[in-house]
Amino acid sequence: MTDAGPLSTDDATFIAVARSGDSARFAVLTERYRRELQVHCYRMLANYEDALDMTQETFLRAWHKRESFKGHAALRTWLYRIATNACLDFLDKRNDRTPVPFGLSGSEVLYLQPYPDRMLPEDPQESVVARETIELAFIVAVQHLPPRQRAVFILRDVLGWPAPKAADALDLTVASVTSALQRARGTMREQLPDRRLDWRSPAHELSSDERGVVESYIDAHERNDLDGLISLLRDDLRFAMLPDAGTTTTTAKDAVDGWLTGGLFQPGHDDWRGIATTVNLMPAAGLYLRTPDAPGHRLFAIAVLRVVDGKIAEMTGFDAAGKPWLDLPPTL
């Protein structure tokens, strides 16, 4: 596997460190790639905790294979190859991670977890972390692809690798990579019919509409303003609460009525507080509930919102308790 251009100073330094067996220096030279490799593993696996594990597995494999690095490829390319194959090995061993059947949606990806924005690379443009490729809808759509097809799609269309480079990383022929990419693009068009297929653009900040909607969403909870909550929701709202299966497309009123029937906003479940945040570069609300037997508000859930024309078009809720990596305080 080769990258164009002469051997860089960094790669020459890495070769020297690898040959010396200096594990501390090795860690220093590879650590700077941790965040972008973690995002890569998350795209492959849709689960933050699994992505952490596979990133660590990548560094362990890199250490054990350090003498195989000859500088024919850039260090970053070499690490991405190891990370991709670590994820593929993980998927091969997990019967619960088979591709999502066609026609099923995000709520059927029961292992889906949100990704904390603070763990994204600091330079998203350089690391190819476009907002569109970290949003939940994209991550779910990728889970419809068979693992090797998924790897081809991410390497080619997200990271922008040329076909020979991707083929070498996956031990495939260029023809196999080209065919797999065509099939993957077809699946992604079916899963994301309203989205463009060029995702290699820099991430951007939340819009004022998005910030305003999440603040109003929290305010409606804190005031138990059900009419206000209804006014924030589109009448073709897509809603899911993981890890429960089943995405619902519903009217705004029916959605709120369903939450009422389930006990929310009823006595004992009507004392809310919220924190505006972001995950997966999307607006989100950390919701805290104080029940009669509790001295304070405890973290209940995180609601990830997709805002279209000033209203919530999609809402994915996650149980947030026991997930310190979300960077939300456990109580308020």
What are the defining features of this structure?
sigma factor, alpha+beta, Butyryl-CoA Dehydrogenase, subunit A, domain 3, 332 residues, Nuclear Transport Factor 2, Chain: A, elongated, six-stranded mixed sheet, single chain, RNA_pol_sigma_r3/r4-like, 12 helices, 2 domains
Short description:
Belongs to the sigma-70 factor family. ECF subfamily. The chain has 332 residues and is of the alpha+beta class.
How would you characterize this protein structure?
The protein is of the alpha+beta class. It folds into two domains: 9-191, Butyryl-CoA Dehydrogenase, subunit A, domain 3 (Up-down Bundle), CATH 1.20.140; 208-326, Nuclear Transport Factor 2, Chain: A (Roll), CATH 3.10.450.50. The chain is 44% helix and 15% strand. The chain is built from twelve helices and six strands. The protein has helices at 9-20, 23-31, 34-45, 48-64, 75-93, 136-142, 147-158, 163-170, 174-191, 208-222, 226-232, 252-261, and strands spanning 233-242, 248-250, 272-279, 282-289, 298-308, 311-319. A hairpin with a 2-residue loop joins strand 5 and strand 6. Helix 1 (9-20) runs antiparallel to helix 2, helix 4 (48-64) crosses helix 5 (75-93) and helix 7 packs antiparallel against helix 8 (163-170). The mean pLDDT is 88.
